[in-house]
């Protein structure tokens, strides 16, 4: 009797990951309830990096906020600034000149390239494929060089100002961009081959975390995560902003819905972005770079939506006619996609968790977390993120040696 | 632990320890509320173009194996305790590097309600690397300077260093 009770107790235990989860923009605390190896329930707690930006904007003026909002996220800083500028311009009743809009789109696509490369590296690292991680990050430096050449900064390029953009593109810059892009295009084709042929990588991605179209719709995922399940959601096409009506991007869909599909969709998006940038360079509209925007913005409310590398980014802006905004609300894509991890985790091996999390691209930049495994009673064991990752890699190595 | 060794041996042992420390510093990185910009630059520093590993630097996961704590971002209310706990878990001697304007002074986030301060209000910082974000070269330069001053015996970390509350 006693033994039975004891077994019942230890059959099910909770594995908390985090809360120190420096990887996400919203460092999160995850709790996975597991039955043996299989995850039966998952929950998340967010808010460790909550700084109070939305309140902070209310005490800064419209121009200062541009720099604060760029720093919501260091990976997709340009889209944050774009969303903000488009919203404020809508409120002020002005529109940035076509050349500025095209440059906005160009920088946004360059940013997508750097973000997807970064993500591919991190995912490869989680899968135990460190060679790929190092290679992608080496190649990513090419796009960082381009961004630096045209804007002067590697991370917060600050291309936008209210009413336009800060810098112009000349023939010399266009040449630099073109050169970099042809190199990246070649590499992307190579990576596409690697991720769809490498046996170990396929084992860790194919058929893992499958999300059907219906599930994707119910959960409400966005961005490449949705498109990998065949859900055609892309703000760039649904509601073109900046110059996306003039230089449209093709939508990349995949109906498999597993991790492998998410990798392939992102890689194909790289190729699409490269093509789009070439179009823009060929056909950059002439004209001014900025229009004047008044210091005080007319009272009113505006929403603006843009497609960040991870999905739809949503801004709500309210002005009361003064020099400072009354309220700004931001909804970032990771939040929407987080729910999919929690749903998909159920029924999967613990070893798949790092990959599942990486699959939605939750702004990973470092892989350092502490995990405590509790076996029913007081007995517990400390796990680090590194150990969970290693566990995943070993798990699949064992599987492989059994299979082949 | 105190060993009563003859001075000659004691000095030799110290030399070996410094040599080991300088040649293989292990890092732990903690983001206490940064925007990710600094974090990806730190990661870029470790990858082939900049290759910090040639200085023996290795990024790893557990505070108990780390010599250097790299902090990014302002300290938010929720991560304050975490940061302190990570620092306390690290074995002596330990060094703290603050990367980025936010970590140094709060940067753009200064004044946001959930930002309780910057790193050196909480931990003793040995090296500041300014920039928003600092370039990978700057991070490398900071690390190398830290190692050099360690080698020259300019930084002396002893057991008792008061933590701010
Ligand atoms: S210093 Fe700049 S790049 Fe670094 S975390 Fe702060 S805002 Fe981001």
Q: What are the salient characteristics of this protein?
A:
heterodimer; A: alpha+beta; Cytochrome-c3 Hydrogenase, chain B; three-stranded antiparallel sheet; 15 helices; 10 strands; disordered N terminus; B: 165 residues; alpha/beta; Rossmann fold; five-stranded parallel sheet; two-stranded antiparallel ribbon; 7 strands; globular; binds iron/sulfur cluster
Can you characterise this structure?
The complex is a heterodimer of chains A (404) and B (165). By secondary structure, chain A is α+β, with helices and mostly antiparallel strands. Chain A folds into 2 domains: 53-331, Orthogonal Bundle (Cytochrome-c3 Hydrogenase, chain B), CATH 1.10.645; 380-404. Chain A is 50% helix and 15% strand. Chain A contains 15 helices and 10 strands. Chain A has helices spanning 2-11, 53-56, 62-70, 77-92, 98-126, 130-151, 171-197, 199-205, 213-219, 223-227, 235-238, 259-282, 333-345, 353-359, 385-403, and strands spanning 12-17, 29-35, 38-45, 160-161, 164-165, 300-308, 311-319, 325-331, 370-374, 380-384. In chain A, the strands form 4 sheets. A 3-stranded antiparallel β-sheet of chain A has the order 1-2-3. Chain A has a 3-stranded antiparallel β-sheet with strand order 6-7-8. In chain A, strands 4-5 form a two-stranded antiparallel sheet. In chain A, a hairpin with a 5-residue loop joins strand 9 and strand 10 (380-384). In chain A, helix 6 packs antiparallel against helix 7 and helix 7 (171-197) runs antiparallel to helix 12 (259-282). The radius of gyration of chain A is 22 Å and the shape is globular. The model of chain A is unreliable at 1-8, 21-26 and 364-380 (pLDDT under 50). Chain B is α/β, with parallel strands linked by helices. Chain B has a single domain (22-146), classed as Rossmann fold. Helices cover 37% and strands 16% of the residues of chain B. Chain B contains 5 helices and 7 strands. In chain B, the strands form 2 sheets. Chain B has a 5-stranded parallel β-sheet. In chain B, helix 2 (37-46) links the parallel strand 1 and strand 2. The longest helix of chain B is centred in the N-terminal third of the chain and has 17 residues, at 7-23. The two termini of chain B are 27 Å apart. The model of chain B has no long low-confidence stretch (mean pLDDT 81). The interface between A and B is large, with 47 and 43 residues. The complex binds iron/sulfur cluster (SF4). Iron/sulfur cluster sits between chains B (34-35, 37-38, 72-73, 100-102, 107-108, 132-133) and A (71, 74, 155).
């Amino acid at each position: 009797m006693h033994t039975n009770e004891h077994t019942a107790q230890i059959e099910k235990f909770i594995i908390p990951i985090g809360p120190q989860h420096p990887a996400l923009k919203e460092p999160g605390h995850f709790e996975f309830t597991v039955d043996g190896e299989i995850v039966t329930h998952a929950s998340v707690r967010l808010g460790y990096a909550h700084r109070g930006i939305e309140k902070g904007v209310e005490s800064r003026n419209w121009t200062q906020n541009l720099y604060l909002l760029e720093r919501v996220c260091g990976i997709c800083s340009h889209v944050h600034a774009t969303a903000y500028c488009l919203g404020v311009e809508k409120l002020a009743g002005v529109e940035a000149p076509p050349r500025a809009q095209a440059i906005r789109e160009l920088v946004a696509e360059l940013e997508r390239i750097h973000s997807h490369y970064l993500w591919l590296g991190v995912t490869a690292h989680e899968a135990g494929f460190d060679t790929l991680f190092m290679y992608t990050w080496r190649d990513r430096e090419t796009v960082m060089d381009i961004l630096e050449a045209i804007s002067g900064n590697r991370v917060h390029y600050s291309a936008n100002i209210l009413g336009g953009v800060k810098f112009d593109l000349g023939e010399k810059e266009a040449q630099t961009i073109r050169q970099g892009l042809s190199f990246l295009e070649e590499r992307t084709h190579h990576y596409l081959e690697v991720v769809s042929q490498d046996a170990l990588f396929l084992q860790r991605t194919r058929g893992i975390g499958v999300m059907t179209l219906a599930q994707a719709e119910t959960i409400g995922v966005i961005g490449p995560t949705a498109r990998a399940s065949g859900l055609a959601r892309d703000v760039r096409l649904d509601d073109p902003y900046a110059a996306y009506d003039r230089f449209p991007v093709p939508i990349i869909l995949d109906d498999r819905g597993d991790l492998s599909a998410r990798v392939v969709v992102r890689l194909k998006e790289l190729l699409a972005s490269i093509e789009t940038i070439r179009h823009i360079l060929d056909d950059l509209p002439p004209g001014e770079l900025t229009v004047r925007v008044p210091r005080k913005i007319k009272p009113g409310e505006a929403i603006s939506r843009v497609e960040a590398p991870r999905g739809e980014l949503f801004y709500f802006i309210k002005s009361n006619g003064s020099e400072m905004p009354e309220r700004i609300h931001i909804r970032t894509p990771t939040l929407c996609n987080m729910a999919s991890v929690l749903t998909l985790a159920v029924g999967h091996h613990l070893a798949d968790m790092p990959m599942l999390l990486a699959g939605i691209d939750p702004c990973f930049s470092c892989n350092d977390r502490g995990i405590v495994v509790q076996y029913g009673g007081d007995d517990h064991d400390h796990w680090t993120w590194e150990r969970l990752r290693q566990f995943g890699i070993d798990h699949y190595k064992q599987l492989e040696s059994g299979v082949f | 632990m105190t060993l009563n060794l003859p001075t000659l041996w004691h000095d030799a042992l110290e030399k070996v320890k410094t040599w080991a420390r300088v040649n293989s510093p292990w890092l732990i990185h903690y983001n206490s509320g940064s925007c990710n910009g600094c974090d990806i630059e730190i990661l870029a520093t470790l990858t082939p173009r900049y290759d910090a590993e040639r200085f023996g630097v290795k990024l790893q996961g557990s505070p108990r194996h780390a010599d250097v704590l790299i902090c990014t971002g302002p300290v938010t209310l929720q991560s304050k305790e975490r940061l302190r706990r990570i620092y306390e878990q690290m074995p002596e001697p330990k060094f703290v590097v603050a990367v980025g304007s936010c970590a140094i002074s709060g940067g753009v986030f200064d004044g946001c309600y959930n930002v309780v301060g910057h790193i050196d209000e909480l931990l003793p910082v040995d090296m500041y690397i300014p920039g928003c974000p600092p370039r990978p070269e700057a991070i490398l330069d900071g690390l190398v300077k830290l190692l050099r001053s360690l080698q020259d015996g300019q930084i002396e970390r002893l057991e008792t260093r008061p933590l701010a509350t």
